[in-house]
Specification:
alpha+beta, Ribosomal Protein S8, Chain: A, domain 1, ten-stranded antiparallel β-sheet, about 30% helix, elongated
Length: about 280
């Protein structure tokens, strides 16, 4: 026989009591956002005043360059200066904006935007307006470590509270000096190491800041910043609510999160071909 003690008491639990005025104003945390995915877009060419044949010819060359880059690693650039407004509009609408963008603060300064086709990049700046087909644009590695803020290295002011940062600097300087093309990636994971806020401030001063900043948007964000120490990058991952979840230094030519893989380039070649067929 069921006793009263086995039944849930009346008047308790969620929903059993009226909400207070403050409770009615509760705001819930937003749910994670969806990852950005490729959505094919076919530009409307019927209403454009002008011949868009030059745009289609350029897209065919870009598609072929993607296929070549996927097979051989060979990169290519295509200037946009000579295109008429109608063709430029078609190119702009076709390429769209992908997940990766970057600023290269060199001379001239260059804004880099990956298109919706991985490995196809739009470069713009003073005297620069082109498409580059590559795993990553050359300017993002060529000028990455030109100092915007000099690396003070061991001369960085040592404030109270700096504990574990100096040995990390020694490790990063050693890996930077010994780095060669093809060397294995070396990662210092700050998220797994004991450190203080003063350690982070000291490392920032010791390593300085380079010329390249990269933002990769997907499920959350990844911010990549070149330091002024060659081949040393700060890589920070944030979740969809902009909370830092992984903080690392990587010693490499460029972090993998910014690269388009050969499979991506091959896929971009096929997708651009599909867009060309839909427009033609």
């Amino acid at each position: 026989m069921t006793t009263p003690f086995m039944m849930p008491p009346a008047g308790f639990g969620p929903g059993s009591q009226p909400l207070a005025e403050d409770d009615e104003k509760l705001e819930y945390m937003p749910l994670p956002r969806d990852m950005r995915t490729y959505v094919p877009h076919v530009p409307e060419v019927a209403g454009l005043a002008g011949d868009v044949t030059p745009a289609l010819d350029l897209l065919r060359r870009v598609a072929a360059a993607c296929a070549t880059a996927a097979q051989t690693g060979e990169t290519a650039q295509f200037g946009l200066e000579g295109l008429d407004p109608a063709s430029l509009q078609v190119i702009k609408e076709t390429l769209g904006e992908g997940e990766v963008a970057a600023k290269v603060r060199a001379v001239p300064a260059i804004a880099v935007q990956e298109s919706v086709f991985a490995g196809v990049w739009r470069l713009s700046g003073v005297g620069v307006d082109c498409i580059e087909v590559a795993p990553v644009p050359g300017c993002m590695t060529r000028d990455a470590f030109a100092p915007r803020r000099n690396a003070l290295l061991a001369k960085a002011p040592m404030a109270p509270g700096v504990v574990n940062a100096p040995p990390l600097l020694v490790e990063l300087r050693d890996k930077s000096a010994s780095w060669k093309p093809g060397a294995d990636l070396h990662v210092v994971n700050l998220s797994l190491l004991p450190h203080t806020e003063e350690d982070l401030v000291w490392l920032d001063q010791a390593l300085g800041e380079g010329a390249v900043t990269i933002l990769s948007r997907g499920y959350g964000n990844c911010r990549v910043t070149a330091t002024a120490l060659p081949h040393v990058w700060r890589v920070q991952f944030f979740n969809s609510m902009d909370v830092l979840i992984l903080d690392t230094f990587e010693v490499t030519e460029i972090p993998e999160v910014a690269l388009a893989a050969p499979e991506d380039l091959s896929d971009s070649s096929a997708r651009i071909g599909q867009v060309i067929e839909a427009i033609s």
